[in-house]
Write a structure and sequence with these properties.
about 210 residues, mainly alpha, Arc Repressor Mutant, subunit A, Tetracycline Repressor, domain 2, 2 domains, 10 helices, about 0% strand
Length: about 210
């Protein structure tokens, strides 16, 4: 990673925000960890708040790219499409575990930037999930369900291990930033999805080898 690079600043900020919190991290702390002059942070992001906004946008824009990649499979059927969306999002989270953890924590704080992100990116995410579920029910792939509650439960499954990574690693002795975990966890989510959306087709089989 090159000195004075924008990416070095972002990675240093994410690490420090996770460790010390946003308010507990100073511009000087970030500059020191990134091994850059503090003026570089002002040049790229104007302020610490600007850096926070950049982190949010980097997370959500790439998250939605993965969501839309999965949505491209909708012509193959609602269930294969939903599985692909889930696969993409779980992989995105494990590959960007530090950024994911920080953003998910920040979403619990009622702030202007959180409200802005919710009113744009999260609304689009909900629209995509709703479209898959409505088409699945219309085409008889899925049983009739309460869409809002299904999305709530699915979102919880997608975020919990990455938001609570300390609990996952110290209590359950698994590591959400590893590919092994992502592969095993995906199978568990698939099993839950099938049990909720297609219980009549769920056969007695295990997803864990």
């Amino acid at each position: 990673m090159k000195k004075n690079s924008k990416e070095a600043i972002v990675q240093a900020a994410i690490s420090l925000f996770n460790t010390n919190g946003f308010h507990g991290t100073s511009i000087r702390d970030i500059a020191k960890k990134a091994e850059v002059n503090a003026a570089n942070i002002s040049y790229y992001f104007q302020s610490k708040e600007g850096l926070l906004e950049y982190c949010f946008m980097a997370y959500y824009e790439n998250y939605l790219i993965e969501l839309e990649k999965g949505m491209a499979n909708l012509d193959d059927g609602a269930f294969p499409c939903l599985k692909k969306v889930i696969e993409n999002l779980v992989n995105f989270h494990y590959q960007n575990s530090h950024l994911t953890r920080f953003i998910l924590r920040e979403l619990s704080v009622d702030s202007q930037i959180v409200r802005e992100m919710m009113s744009t990116y999260s609304v689009k995410e909900r629209y995509c999930f709703t479209q898959i579920l409505e088409i699945g029910m219309l085409q008889k792939e899925f049983n009739k369900i309460n869409i809002n509650y299904f999305i709530l439960q699915l979102k919880s499954l997608l975020s919990m291990p990455f938001l609570n990574s300390q609990y996952i690693s110290e209590v359950l002795h698994i590591f959400p930033h590893e590919k092994y975990f992502a592969e095993k966890y995906l199978k568990e989510i698939y099993q839950w999805v099938e049990s909720v959306l297609r219980p009549d087709t769920l056969q007695s089989k295990t997803y864990i080898s």
